[in-house]
């Protein structure tokens, strides 16, 4: 039993439907074996649990563990290339790096660097876009399991338009994926996601093979990319003349449902939004990637009005790092700048997108806010004394303002503690 005494910010009430930031200046979270059993004032908690260890975190701000709904495992060494649009960036920057994960020792080293990147940024749960190599995925799942993070991931599949070393076929991808599902799905905090790279590199037969895996393995997830770049979208239309639109390439294969997370969706048709809302699928919004690749503005307002669920993703390595605070403020910037009319986001919206929206998106009901009944997945933001963020938090007008400063200025250097299920990482 541990009593965490802290200043706590979280978003149990969705700010997109009228909720406000919940903030407590000095509160006790009683945690028993990873579970938050009560949220009360410190004296009450102390009196009820005189034997409990007390951890005083009041020199920082405690927020829920951050949730990244789109981040690429094999791109940790490819972060930071500038100046290319998507298809060119894939050819020149991302795919040559991804091919290197054919080497098991290389893949193991990258898996370690990747998990360090997540934890350092305060990310405690993630939908991880995997590698094209089954051996690399096995090594990643093993490392992810040891890390304690809540990870959903899977073998990436493609059968065209990529370097030969990254291609597979229906039979091989089905066999390798099923073996990984049998070995890892449901083990501890791990889950499996069928992961066709995108319909630009996967034909109808390969996509349908993914759909069969979903049908035969109830509870597994699906992740891919959707409507990111205009050249990509016209390529997809050529490869899939049978499909009504980009989303339909996945839908015809049985890949569009509640456990489907599709990254980007910058250029959707109204029909696609309506269908995603009907199916309950999720869009992973990745604003630094969209900016770096000049892919476009994310039509957040249309997603909200259509009832499509949205959460935040870093999209490392087109995205510029693992820091979801940076993704939050970049989303704010782009909504401000969108010539077609963005949504005016507050700091509470940003925290929701980075925490509770991600938990809902990934059906991680046990995390996302710091309430009784939830698991203690948490991040302590505590900048070094005298740094601009420290000064900013101290002089903030109110808690929303302090939270805005955390998004505007926060980096991994300001993350002083990360817990998953009550265990410090
Ligand atoms: N579409 C297909 N693959 C990728 C990728 O690795 N990054 C991004 N941003 N989009 C993609
Ligand atoms: Zn991506």
Polypeptide structure, described:
- The protein has 425 residues and is an alpha/beta fold.
- The chain has 2 domains: 2-64 and 370-424, Urease, subunit C, domain 1 (Roll), CATH 2.30.40.10; 66-322, Metal-dependent hydrolases (TIM Barrel), CATH 3.20.20.140.
- 39% of the residues lie in helices and 22% in strands.
- The protein contains 16 helices and 17 strands.
- It has helices at 42-48, 86-99, 104-120, 134-147, 170-184, 204-216, 230-239, 246-251, 270-279, 287-292, 300-306, 324-337, 347-354, 356-361, 388-394, 399-409; strands at 2-10, 22-32, 35-40, 53-56, 61-64, 66-72, 123-129, 150-154, 156-157, 190-196, 221-226, 260-264, 282-285, 309-312, 378-381, 415-420, 423-424.
- The strands form 3 sheets. Strands 6, 7, 8, 9, 10, 11, 12, 13 and 14 form a 9-stranded parallel sheet that branches.
- The model has no long low-confidence stretch (mean pLDDT 98).
- Zinc ion is lined by residues 70, 72, 129, 225, 263, 315.
- Guanine binds at residues 72, 86, 90, 94, 197-198, 225, 228, 289, 315, 318.
- Its cofactor is Zn(2+).
- It catalyses: guanine + H2O + H(+) = xanthine + NH4(+).
- It is an enzyme of class 3 (hydrolase).
Give keywords:
EC 3.5.4.3, Urease, subunit C, domain 1, 16 helices, Metal-dep_hydrolase_composite, binds zinc ion, single chain, TIM Barrel, alpha/beta, 22% strand, Guanine deaminase, 425 residues, binds guanine, 4-stranded mixed sheet
């Amino acid at each position: 039993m541990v009593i965490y005494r802290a200043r706590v910010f979280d978003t149990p009430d969705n700010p997109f439907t009228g909720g406000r930031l919940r903030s407590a200046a000095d509160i006790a979270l009683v945690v028993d074996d990873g579970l938050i059993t009560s949220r009360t004032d410190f004296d009450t908690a102390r009196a009820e649990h005189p034997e409990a260890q007390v951890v005083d975190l009041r020199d920082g701000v405690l927020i829920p563990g951050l949730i990244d709904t789109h981040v690429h495992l094999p791109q940790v060494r490819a972060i930071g290339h500038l100046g290319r649009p998507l298809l060119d960036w894939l050819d020149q920057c991302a795919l040559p790096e991804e091919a290197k994960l054919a080497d098991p020792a290389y893949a193991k080293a990258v898996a370690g660097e990747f998990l360090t990147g997540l934890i350092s940024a305060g990310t405690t749960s993630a939908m991880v876009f995997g590698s094209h190599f089954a051996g690399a995925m096995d090594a990643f799942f093993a490392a992810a399991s040891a890390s304690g993070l809540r990870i959903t991931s899977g073998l990436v599949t493609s059968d065209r338009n990529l370097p030969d070393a990254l291609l597979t076929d229906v039979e091989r991808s089905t066999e390798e994926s099923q073996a990984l599902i049998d070995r890892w799905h449901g083990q501890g905090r791990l889950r499996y996601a069928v992961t066709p790279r995108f319909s630009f590199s996967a034909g109808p037969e390969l996509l349908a093979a993914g759909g069969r895996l979903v049908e035969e393995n109830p509870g597994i997830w699906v992740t891919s990319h959707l409507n990111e770049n205009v050249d990509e979208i016209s390529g997809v239309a050529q490869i899939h003349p049978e499909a009504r639109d980009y989303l339909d390439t996945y839908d015809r294969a049985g890949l569009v449902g509640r456990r489907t997370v599709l990254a980007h969706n910058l250029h959707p048709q109204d029909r696609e939004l309506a269908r995603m809302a009907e199916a309950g699928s999720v869009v992973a919004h990745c604003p630094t990637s969209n900016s770096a690749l000049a892919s476009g503005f994310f039509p957040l307002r249309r997603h909200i009005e259509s009832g499509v669920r949205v959460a935040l993703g870093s999209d490392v390595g087109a995205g510029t790092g693992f820091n979801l605070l940076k993704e939050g403020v970049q989303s704010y910037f782009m909504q401000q700048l969108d010539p077609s009319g963005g949504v005016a986001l507050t700091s509470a919206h940003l925290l929701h997108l980075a925490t509770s929206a991600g938990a809902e998106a990934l059906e991680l009901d046990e995390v996302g806010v710091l309430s009784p009944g939830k698991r203690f997945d948490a991040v302590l933001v505590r900048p070094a004394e005298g740094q601009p963020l420290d000064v900013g938090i101290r002089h903030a007008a109110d808690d929303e303002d302090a939270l805005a400063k955390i998004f505007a200025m926060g980096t991994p250097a300001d993350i002083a503690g990360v817990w998953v299920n009550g265990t410090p990482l």
